[in-house]
Amino acid sequence: MRNLDETIVYLMRVYKWPLEYTRNLVRTMPVKDLNILIAETDYQERMATYQQSYNVALILSAICSSDKRKYKPSDFIGKQPERKTNVSKPRPQTEEDTTRGNPFYTLPPEPECA
Fold it and tell me: Domain spans of the chain?
């Protein structure tokens, strides 16, 4: 896991959230939920990069293929990224949880841009 400052900057860069909003979100969010958010964000970024690389690899495989050897895009870029399976998903929030004061986190509204 990244340190707290790196996590704040990472989320600001990806989601374009203001500093105070991101800092407050990271400091108040339960660690388990924060890990899930970071893992999913990281996966989505890797998938976007993979899709761009796949398009280039598709062109390269068409150029480099011949009668003797047929290339596939995966020969140039490898396999598609996978989700990390060691990050556990939180159980769904129920009405009973909120009435007992269980610490489930709900995202605060995003600040309006001026």
Answer: 4-78
> Quick one: which of 92, 86, 88, 87 has its CA closest to 104?
92
19-39 confidence digits (pLDDT tens) = 999 999 988 888 888 888 899
97-to-1, 29, 32 alpha-carbon distances in Å: 28, 17, 17
pLDDT in tens, 50-64: 999 999 999 999 999
Tell me the C-alpha distance between 97 and 75, whole Å.
Answer: 50
Residue 72 CB partners (closer than 8 Å, separation 6+): 61
Torsion of CA 91, 107, 2, 92, to 10 degrees: 0
- Which two structure tokens, joined as six digits, stand for 105? 């986190």
Model pTM score: 0.65
